[in-house]
């Protein structure tokens, strides 16, 4: 039984389309594994596929166009922020009020703020919380719009973070 499985596996390797090699990644596909292991043929691709599968980077990369998956993902950065803010709205609002938290750091990263500026990003959201979330009717889109306005006006963050949507999308 093991021998039959090995034969089927080996045969499937020969049937794999060669177009994957033209795309800049090996048989394991795009993702973190392709960036770390590379596109060289051979058993290394098993490690690349394992890395892709365990990190979840392949799915994210195909959606966003990152992780060696090309530059035409289904979502642009602005849409990613909107989805993130919508899915994590309650946590983001709480963390903005506190000025720190994991979701807030992720949002700062989505604005390409360096890790050294995450504390300043959190401090800004805490200080200007009432401007970012003016009332209970505030939607994730309004939250992001208000935040982007404040980031653009901030002396340090406007220079260290990349908030220009047109430059990122």
Brief overview, please?
The protein is an all-alpha fold and 169 residues long.
How does this model look, in words?
The chain is mainly α. It has two domains: 2-64, no CATH class; 77-168, no CATH class. 64% of the residues lie in helices and 0% in strands. The protein is built from 13 helices and no strands. Helix 7 packs across helix 9 and helix 8 packs across helix 9. The protein is elongated and about 65 Å long. The protein starts with a helix and ends with a helix. Mean pLDDT is 75; it is low at 13-23 and 165-169.
Biggest pleated sheet: none
Q: Overall 3D geometry?
A: elongated
Uncertain stretches of 5 or more adjacent residues: 13-23, 165-169
* Helix fraction by DSSP (H/I, runs of at least 4): 55-70%
Q: What quaternary form is this? A: single chain
Total beta strands = 0
Structural class: mainly alpha
Q: What percentage of amino acids are in beta strands?
A: under 5%
Cα-based radius of gyration, to the nearest Å: 21 Å
Q: What is the H/E order? A: HHHHHHHHHHHHH
**Integer tally of domains:** 2
Number of contiguous helices = 13
* Gap from first CA to last CA: 51 Å
Mean pLDDT: 75
Protein name: DUF3015 domain-containing protein
Organism: Nitrosomonas marina
Keywords: Signal
Signal peptide: 1-22
């Amino acid at each position: 039984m093991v021998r039959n499985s090995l034969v089927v596996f080996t045969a499937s390797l020969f049937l794999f389309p060669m177009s994957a090699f033209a795309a800049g990644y090996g048989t394991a596909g795009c993702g973190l594994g392709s960036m770390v292991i590379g596109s060289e043929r051979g058993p290394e691709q098993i490690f690349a596929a394992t890395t892709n599968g365990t990190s979840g980077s392949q799915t994210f990369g195909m959606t966003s166009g990152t992780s060696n998956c090309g530059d035409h993902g289904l979502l642009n950065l602005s849409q990613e922020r909107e989805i993130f803010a919508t899915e994590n709205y309650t946590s983001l609002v709480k963390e903005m009020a506190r000025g720190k938290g994991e979701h807030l750091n992720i949002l700062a990263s989505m604005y390409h703020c360096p890790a050294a500026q995450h504390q300043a990003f959190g401090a800004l959201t805490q200080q200007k919380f009432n401007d970012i979330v003016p009332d209970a009717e505030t939607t994730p889109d309004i939250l992001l719009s208000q935040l982007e306005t404040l980031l653009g006006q901030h002396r340090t963050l406007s220079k260290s973070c990349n908030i220009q949507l047109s430059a990122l999308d």
